[in-house]
Amino acid sequence: MSLREGASGVRSVPVTEVLSAPVMQALQRLALKQQGPARHRQPVAVIGPGDANEAECAAAYAVAHALAGAGMAVICGGRGGVMAAASRGASEAGGIAVGILPEDDDSQANQWLSVAVPTGMGEMRNAIIARAGVCLVAIGSNMGTLSEMAMGLKWGKPVFVLYGGVELPGAVAVSDVNDMLARVLACLLG
């Protein structure tokens, strides 16, 4: 999968203006890795509130777009807000967006999912998302996001946080999209 630039439809955080040269080089290395036998088969979990604000959604879109453009699948809760923005970013980069839904059907799934998985588990589906991700990218914060972060940390998953409201021991706070991608890429390429 080729690395694609641009973030159509997101005015506040265009991908080409956010990413530094080292991040772009790391994305290119990841794209090469994802074409070989040592590729990551687990997705990156992008988590955050369903009622996220514009900055949170723009950041989720940009992170998912960049990672999916380098060949990483994205997993999320499959609904609105950060989840929809991440799904859209992954989809528009030509990647895969998997949504783990709390309902028994896919009627509440966002339109950008490649795969919708209705669980009928309610909020317990957060455990599946936290367990499935090679790392967790938390953008914004609510109780559901905090539960996914806590489970991820308990299971030894790297957790990176942008716009977080509560600090959890072990979670790595980042300053912006570029910093988030730099940390996630170091994890994926390390």
Plain-language structure description:
- With 190 residues, this protein is of the alpha/beta class.
- Helix content is 41%, strand content 14%.
- Strands 4-3-2-1-5-6-7 form a seven-stranded parallel β-sheet, sandwiched between helices.
- α2 (21-33) runs parallel beside α7 (177-189) and α5 (125-132) crosses α6 (143-154).
- The protein is globular and about 40 Å long.
Secondary-structure blueprint of this entry?
Blueprint: H1 15-18, H2 21-33, E1 44-47, H3 54-69, E2 74-76, H4 82-92, E3 97-101, E4 115-118, H5 125-132, E5 136-139, H6 143-154, E6 159-162, E7 172-173, H7 177-189
Parallel strand pairs: 1-2, 1-5, 2-3, 3-4, 5-6, 6-7
Helix pairs in contact: 2-7, 3-4, 5-6
**Percentage of β-strand residues:** 5-15%
Radius of gyration, whole Å: 15 Å
What is the overall silhouette? Answer: globular
Mean pLDDT: 92
- By secondary-structure content and strand pairing, the structural class works out as alpha/beta
Number of E strands? 7
- Spatial strand arrangement across the major sheet: 4-3-2-1-5-6-7
Q: Which consecutive residue ranges, at least 5 long each, have pLDDT under 50?
A: 1-14
**Elements, N to C (H/E):** HHEHEHEEHEHEEH
Q: Which range best describes the helical content: under 10%, 10-25%, 25-40%, 40-55%, 55-70% or over 70%?
A: 40-55%
**Main sheet makeup:** 7 strands, parallel
Query: Cα distance, first to last residue?
Result: 20 Å
Instruction: Please tally the helical runs, counting DSSP H or I stretches of 4 or more residues.
Output: 7
